[in-house]
Design a protein that fits this description.
By secondary structure, the protein is mainly alpha-helical. 52% of the residues lie in helices and 3% in strands. The protein is built from four helices and two strands. The protein has helices at residues 35-50, 55-89, 91-100, 106-121, and strands at residues 11-12, 21-22. It has a two-stranded antiparallel ribbon. A hairpin with an 8-residue loop joins strand 1 (11-12) and strand 2. The longest helix is centred in the middle third of the chain and has 35 residues, at 55-89. It starts with 10 loop residues before the first strand and ends in a 26-residue tail after the last helix.
């Protein structure tokens, strides 16, 4: 703190910026407009007039849902944390500058980086394990033998 105001200790350095400059200290708490908060609010509002569940059953369903999503939530938190760390340390800017310096080989490196991302995620747009089936099965159709 300097003169009662927060002071950034992280500086952005050349070649990312022309001269050393403090990294902007911004924190936004946008939980009211995030998708998860809106889904939670919608489920609570749907529970009120529904009457199909008792409050105990509703809380039980919410608890089971949170238990099922705990690893997904932890993964999201860790990915956002590492993204913040990489951004604050200048790693993303360094990677961007390195890729920009490849010149005419940029399309190759761009595609390679995309393939690396697909490999790390473990899925492709056509065959997604994390998002479910890519196309719905017709009633009465046989299951595909391909995996």
């Amino acid at each position: 703190m300097r003169d009662g105001q927060p002071f950034p200790r992280i500086l952005r350095m050349p070649p990312v910026v022309p001269s050393p400059a403090p990294y902007a200290l911004t924190f936004r708490l946008d939980f009211l407009i995030s998708a998860g908060t809106l889904v939670l609010a919608a489920s609570c509002f749907a529970f009120l007039p529904g009457g199909a569940l008792t409050p105990r059953a509703f809380l039980s369903v919410c608890g089971r849902t949170l238990r099922q999503l705990r690893l997904a939530m932890l993964t999201i938190v860790l990915i956002l944390s590492i993204a913040t760390l990489m951004n604050a340390s200048g790693m993303t800017a360094s990677m961007a500058l390195a890729l920009a310096a490849t010149g005419s080989l940029f399309p190759f490196f761009s595609a390679f980086l995309g393939m690396l991302g697909v490999f790390v995620r473990g899925a492709t747009p056509r065959r997604t394990r994390s998002s479910g089936r890519s196309r719905p099965r017709r009633p009465g159709s046989r299951a595909s033998t391909r995996s």
